[in-house]
Design brief:
The protein is an alpha/beta fold. Helix content is about 50%, strand content about 10%.
């Protein structure tokens, strides 16, 4: 197998990773299935707790009592993951596998440990407030919150704030990851993929050492094959639509300001303009605004 046999797509959920999956899967040499959640499962497999005496408790420590060294366990887990991806690519008649699961970016240390030298990594960024709004849509549509989001929701009960903070953490981790792996990772922005798809796709394919078929985008957008988990929204579309860019501008000034305070340092680090931040309203002003809203609502109903 070549050293970089695969391609892993990383990005905060709702950053355009599924659109990129469609495009990669349409390539004659690349197979990118629907969300496998393999790396999330591996992360749970590798997770450990520590008791009061400092003893690590988990699968790896349990296997060590059987005489299985940690690196042997990791190698066998790696072989399991790669066997699924390789076999699927082979079933599609393609020599290279690609993996995209929306929440992989919450498990970057595990991804890195398992396939660091086996894959190229395509990291996708999208404006954090747009991600937060789209995550809210996703959770409303699905009727549940993914386990990776629950720690944020427990700590920050306002969903948009929780999702914005999750985006900050994931994106910060992605920036660190690409800095550690400059030769195997490329960073793109969702907004650029939407506005200049052929240019961005060409950049990605050149980076991973593949040709850029002239009909790749048309083929990707017209295909309804190989549907999988996570494809519910993008596969309803046959064109790349820019309407989702800048949705955050529909937020009230105060909500956008609150989220901007959280996101602005990372927005700036990823090349976005910062969100205007306004002084916080006093409790008295907030009450006045609430009363004014009630009065306006009453006036409209009369």
């Amino acid at each position: 197998m070549p050293e970089r046999e695969g391609i892993v797509v990383l990005g905060a959920p709702r950053s355009g990773t599924t659109l990129l999956r469609r495009i990669l899967d349409a390539h004659p040499r690349i197979s990118c299935p629907g969300e496998t959640n393999l790396f999330a499962a591996c992360d749970r497999f590798l997770r450990t707790d520590t008791n009061a005496d400092g003893l690590k408790i988990g699968v790896l420590s349990g296997l060590s009592f059987m005489g299985v060294a940690e690196e042997e366990a990791i190698e066998r887990l790696r072989d399991l993951v790669l066997s699924f991806l390789r076999d699927h690519a082979k079933s599609q008649g393609k020599p290279r596998w690609a993996e995209k699961s929306a929440f992989d970016s919450f498990h970057i240390p595990t991804v890195e440990r398992l396939v660091e030298t086996r894959a190229h990594f395509v990291c996708v960024h999208r404006h954090g407030l747009d991600v937060a709004l789209s995550l809210q849509d996703l959770c409303d549509k699905a009727g549940y919150y993914a386990s990776e989001l629950m720690p944020y929701l427990r700590r920050y009960p306002r969903p948009l704030e929780a999702f914005t903070r999750a985006w900050v953490d994931v994106t910060t981790e992605l920036l660190a990851f690409t800095a550690r792996n400059p030769d195997s990772s490329v960073m793109i922005r969702y907004e650029d993929l939407v506005s200049e798809p052929n240019h961005v796709i060409g950049k990605i394919l050149d980076f991973v050492g593949e040709t850029h078929p002239s009909d790749l985008l048309d083929k990707a957008l017209s295909s309804r094959e190989n549907l999988g988990l996570g494809d519910w929204k993008t596969y309803g579309r046959s064109s790349i639509e820019p309407g989702s860019i800048g949705r955050w501008n529909s937020l009230s000034r105060n909500v956008a300001s609150t989220l901007g305070e959280i996101a602005n340092p990372v927005l700036e680090a990823t090349g976005y303009e910062t969100v205007p931040v306004v002084p916080r309203r006093s409790q008295q002003d907030a009450q006045k605004g609430y009363k004014m809203g009630l009065m306006l609502q009453h006036a409209r109903e009369e």
